[in-house]
Amino acid sequence: MSDPHVGFVTQASASQAAEVAEIGVGMLGYAFMGKAHSNAYRTLEYMTWPPPLRPVLVAIAGRNEAAVCEAARRFGFASHVMDWRALIA
After folding, report:
1. In which domain, by residue range, is 36 found?
2. The model's pTM
């Protein structure tokens, strides 16, 4: 016997990504854990369907401009900032 409400009941009936609400993600840091969490956000839909929310990688913050710019490009963030306060503004 299968239960039609698998996973998060609030999104159990979603059949397409467009039906799942989005949530913006701001990441502080781009080293090992930043890379790990970015990968987790990108693979959420693959691992859990339907996801409770669909993460949108908005911005990543770091102290070294060249490194955080490269991290944003590699990890799929729309932008990068040098000041963490810009993530929460």
Report:
1. 19-88
2. 0.76
